[in-house]
Amino acid sequence: MIFEVRTYQLKPGSMPEAIKRFGAGYEHRKKYSELAAFFYTEIGPLNQIIHIWPYESLAHRTEVRAEASGDPNWPPSIAEFAVDMSSEIFVPFPFTPTFEPGKVGPIFEWRSYNIVPGSIGKIRDGWAGAIDKRKALSPITMAMHTELGPLNKFVHIWPYESLAHRAEVRAKARADGIWPPKGGGGNLVAQENKIVVAAPFSPIQ
What we know:
CATH class: Alpha Beta
CATH topology: Alpha-Beta Plaits
Distance between the termini: 21 Å
Strand content: 25-35%
Order of helices and strands: EHEEHEEHEEHE
Number of helices: 4
Structural class: alpha+beta
Shape: globular
């Protein structure tokens, strides 16, 4: 399983209309393949939409996108709102869920790290030994690393009931020595954090 993460930076004030048009277009697009999630930023880098598409492989992605491009209702008419677009291919950690549909939010923390080249195996091993205790405090939506696009990038996404719930869980995890995994700090080069919310048509909420 791979995930294509497409991030669009939009013009200020255009997000409501862009999401509306995307949602209308998605009603036609999902017959070819369905979204894993669709988020928009609430805190952090503003005016971003993030749509995440699961595929069995790169060949499957090529096949589906070729089919969808023949649909007159796709892609949605949002190019006029876009300032910048990026596409990245991610591979999930084997012990994380795969964007299971359902209501787990309503807010999500999106944590993105640039890591030391060659260190993803060490990070994965550290997570494997600590994730079960961390998930006992609150669930995880996804942990994944880039395969194509900007390399040596690691993203993990956490759902919370509220910002207060996030603060409470993170404080307890640190106080109990559960999280973050030991020994991972030396593998981090840079960090970015944002709070995102799911669009109405996102399978995960």
